[in-house]
Automatic annotation (TrEMBL):
Record-level Gene Ontology MF annotations: acyltransferase activity
Keywords carried by this UniProt record: Acyltransferase, Cell membrane, Membrane, Transferase, Transmembrane, Transmembrane helix
Protein name: Membrane-bound O-acyltransferase family MBOAT
GO cellular component entries: plasma membrane
Record GO biological process: alginic acid biosynthetic process
Species name: Leptospira wolbachii serovar Codice str. CDC
């Protein structure tokens, strides 16, 4: 069930009418039941695997505080390794199999004819990192393990963020699950407005842009010279509207139920450098990698060279996390190099933080470097990197930029400019208890949706991760 579908809306409305009127204790069982039902609509076998993961991590975390010394550490490493193997088998085994086949062919041997078929559970990267963070927090004694199995199960099966995150920290979400949910009129209005805005930008920006990208980037060999200079920013807005749209829907649904999820995006396209960009884009993943990988590797405590080496490791892992394929590995290395290059320029005094011109130029270069990097997601083999570079060696024909593309991005740009002007920490329509303002906004979105929305619906872009 897609968030932007009649099927989901009808199911959620039925669920919410019951949820709103029952006691807090009953709400917990409703949340867990609906989470299982929601995920099972994608694949019942994947649901069984998810429930197994829930039981495994809950049981393991209960034992860790009662152990000490080497035994405690061994059990913790076993838990982390098991989660990584779980992710690796279902997400990366096919890629490793194909890589081995390619290597055989590269040395003159016949490739592997048979190819195994392995189920890829949707959202596996998100909920596996969810569980790893829980085990780390328990091991480091930042939180106590859940005594109540249903509390942990709701944490792992909380349906607004189950498929695409954000990768919510246990220290934020679990206490909310354990406490009583108080739903106010403000919660309802803010939640509905966030949900509508998320569906709106998904349907009127991400989906049409997805079709444009598919038409203009089907094969890197047959592209019009220089067209990727135009396609790249379209992909950037497609991914942003798609993933930001899902995050808004998740935040809105959670707020309607009395929960507060972290904000996953904070106007990233206004960032003037790569460091700022990654503090505002997919914040839950960036901070996860910072806290659980970068800092564990030593962070910036062992000199400038080691600091940048740690960053390259982090971004290599970020590339692999996004998907099993050549393009994702190259993408991670590319973004790591962009970040290291900026840090080197700053380290040697070549970046003036108070320069208005450098800030504007940095915003343009940061946006375009990210946009060009997204082309790497589409690479099926390393040789296609050369085709991308060959296309980018030509100047684009500016007349190829469709006016509709520029018009379609306006609502999202205006909204982000408004939020930047208000300097909000979270997306906010400032509607609260003002239904009249809400109705005006709703009518505007409905009109724009009627004019520019495609009839068909696309899966969320990050479902593949």
């Amino acid at each position: 069930m897609l968030f932007n579908s009649i099927s989901f809306l009808s199911h959620f409305l039925f669920f919410y009418l019951i949820y709103y009127h029952v006691s807090d204790r009953i709400r917990k069982y409703l949340l867990l039941s609906f989470g299982i039902y929601f995920y099972s609509q994608w694949n019942i076998n994947a649901t069984v695997l998810l429930l197994f993961s829930v039981i495994f991590n809950y049981s393991l975390a209960r034992y860790i505080p009662h152990l000490s010394g080497k035994t405690r550490r061994t059990l913790f490493i076993f838990g982390i390794t098991s989660n990584l193997l779980y992710l690796g088998v279902f997400k990366y085994f096919i890629f490793v199999w194909e890589l081995f086949s390619d290597l055989k062919m590269g040395f003159g041997f016949p490739g592997l004819v048979w190819k195994p078929e392995i189920l890829l559970p949707i959202g596996i990267s998100f909920y596996t990192f969810h569980n790893i963070s829980y085990l780390i927090e328990v091991y480091d004694e930042r939180i106590r393990p859940c005594k109540n199995f249903f509390t942990f199960a709701i944490y792992d099966l909380f349906f607004p963020l189950l498929l695409l995150g954000p990768i919510e920290r246990p220290g934020n979400l679990i206490p909310q699950i354990e406490s009583k949910q108080i739903i106010t009129r403000e919660n309802i209005w803010n939640g509905i407005s966030l949900f509508i805005w998320g569906v709106f930008i998904k349907s009127t920006i991400a989906d049409p842009f997805s079709r444009y990208v598919e038409i203009h980037a089907q094969s890197f060999e047959s592209l019009e010279p220089g067209i990727l200079w135009i396609v790249a920013p379209v992909i950037a807005f497609q991914v942003y509207a798609d993933f930001f749209g899902y995050s808004l829907c998740a935040m809105g649904l959670a707020e309607m139920m009395g929960f507060r999820l972290m904000n996953n995006f904070k106007r990233p396209f206004f960032s003037s450098n790569p460091s700022e960009f990654w503090s505002k884009w997919h914040i839950s993943l960036s901070t996860w990698l910072r806290d659980y990988v970068y800092i564990k590797l030593g962070g910036n405590r062992h000199g400038f060279f080691r600091e940048n080496a740690n960053l390259m490791v982090v971004w290599f892992l970020a590339g692999i996390w996004h998907g099993a394929g050549y393009g994702f590995v190259i993408w991670g290395v590319y973004l790591g190099l962009c970040l290291v290059l900026y840090r080197c320029l700053k380290h040697y005094g070549l970046v003036k933080t108070k320069s208005r011109f450098q800030s504007l130029l940095g915003t343009f270069l940061t946006f375009y470097s990210f946009s060009l990097g997204l082309l790497l997601f589409r690479i099926q083999s390393p040789s296609e990197t050369y085709l991308i570079l060959r296309n980018l060696s030509h100047l684009p024909n500016l007349s190829s930029i469709p006016l509709m593309i520029l018009i379609t991005t306006l609502p999202l740009l205006v909204f982000d400019l408004w939020q930047e002007w208000k300097d909000t920490d979270r997306p906010n329509f400032f509607i609260s208890t003002k239904p009249f303002s809400f109705m005006i906004m709703f009518f505007f979105f409905f009109l724009w949706f009627s004019l520019f929305s495609p009839f068909g619906k696309q899966d969320f872009f990050y479902f593949q991760f």
